[in-house]
Design goal:
It comes from Trichomonas vaginalis (strain ATCC PRA-98 / G3). By secondary structure, the chain is α/β, with parallel strands linked by helices. The chain has a single domain, classed as Rossmann fold (3-Layer(aba) Sandwich), CATH 3.40.50. Helices cover 40% and strands 13% of the residues. Helix 4 links the parallel strand 2 and strand 3. The longest helix is centred in the C-terminal third of the chain and has 21 residues.
Length: 120
């Protein structure tokens, strides 16, 4: 699904299960399916299941920091940090888009020249 939706994306959330090391290990595979140079927020889901954790906060945070991703932990079950992680992505996308527009030449504004008509 990522190649279809990730083609013209301005940003992405890559989510993994903190209780599944294999889902964490596939983050870079998912990233490879996305357009280069877009903001990516990695979200470790199920932070409410601390007793089943296989990926430590430190491991995930360091991985994301080393790869240029922002990192959040959330719980879809309790709602913890869900809005914050999405808001973080939206802000990153907005800033990313502004940076793109700053680097583009300004649009030329074409105006029609009025032709004067000679009298008589």
């Amino acid at each position: 699904m990522a190649p279809i939706y990730g083609r013209n994306a301005f940003g992405a959330i890559i989510m993994f299960d903190i209780a599944s090391k294999s889902s964490f290990n596939s983050i870079l595979e998912w990233k490879s399916k996305l357009t280069d140079e877009i903001p990516i927020v990695v979200v470790g889901n199920k932070c409410d299941l601390e007793d089943r954790r296989e990926v430590s906060y430190e491991e995930a945070h360091n991985f994301c920091e080393n790869n240029g991703f922002e990192y959040w932990e959330c719980s879809a079950a309790t709602g913890k940090n869900v809005p914050d992680s999405f808001n973080s992505l939206l802000l990153s996308c907005f800033n990313f888009r502004l940076q793109i527009e700053k680097n583009q030449p300004p649009n030329a504004i074409l105006t029609e020249e009025k032709q004067g008509r000679a009298c008589c």
